Sequence to fold (381 residues):
Amino acid sequence: MKVFVKFVVVVFLAFMLFSVVPTVSAQDAASSFKLLNQEDATFSHTLTVIVPQSLYEYYGELSHKSTVTSDFPKFVTPYSVQPIADCLRQIYPDDEDFANGVLTLVHQIPYEEIREQYYPVETLQKNSGDCDMFSLLAASILKGGGLDVKLLHYPSEDHMNVGVHLDSFPQDARTDVYSFKNQDITYYVGECTSSNWQKGWRVGECPEDLINVPMKIVPLEDSESIAPGQVSASFKKLQSTTLDVEFSTFFALQGSVVTVNGQIAPAVSNQNVTLYVNSNGSPWWVLDTTVTEANGRFSYVWESDALGAVGVRASWNGNDQYAGTTSGTQHTLILPFYIVALGALALTCIIVCIVAFAVSRRNRQKRLVQQMETASYSYDI
Fold:
């Protein structure tokens, strides 16, 4: 019984703690990148990229192990940055121009030596990285844009860049063009670091200190194919949005049906909303994706299998008019059936004890009254 009481108290206090803390909406990160007209290198467009906080946290909780070269492909995530590739393809339909546009974008991210690897979404959110991070981001966007790309690892130089396959010889390179062959396919070097993004390296150009340096070609067939969400990207100024989410009940039994409701404002219909959940402060995981109705509302029925204080958060990627956003976190308390049964049993025992105590007390009072009446009668006689 003591163990049960302690468990109930701990869970209740945890739930109350999560419930009373204000649920502030997660802060999504926005970055802007300037893009060039490839013909005369003049400024042409500004691309705004927004990273949903929930997507950033999703990648932050994945494995960041990168002790061997074969660990690199898992950091290439084309789906998550697909909107960036789609926007670049609007102004760079030519493959070479598109590849140079991607290099121009990554050249604008401030350089910072980092010991661990970041996923592309993390690099965009942190707005910093080194050659590895820039190469992983560039490879992800290039693959999202439909190009065949490899990672190039230079162990002796502790450096990385990319190799890009083009159907024709690069026309915009300002130096000798450097390439290599892999399975009879020609790939051109793409250097992803630069101190001057407007005059940065173009596809086919190679830094002098890397010429003839041994490299490892890292294939990306095993890179990520799907993710729970995507960044938002647009050349237009996107309108801000809000996203609300809530549980249908404050507590429930494990295995029972719990409904998650929410709404995007302004109302946007037929949009995919990703739901994330966690339990007792554990890492977030993707519950599922649901679709908004005409009024921007959505509803998802979940047969809960988590226990304790369970949190839910919703994320929307946005579209070409509205910026994506992430909701605040809401909580419910999910209890296992045996705990509820024990609680009911304990409550029943308490009620029985109270009733027994009340009956016993009433009987004692009744006997006391009878004794007093008997004593009074004897005295009168």
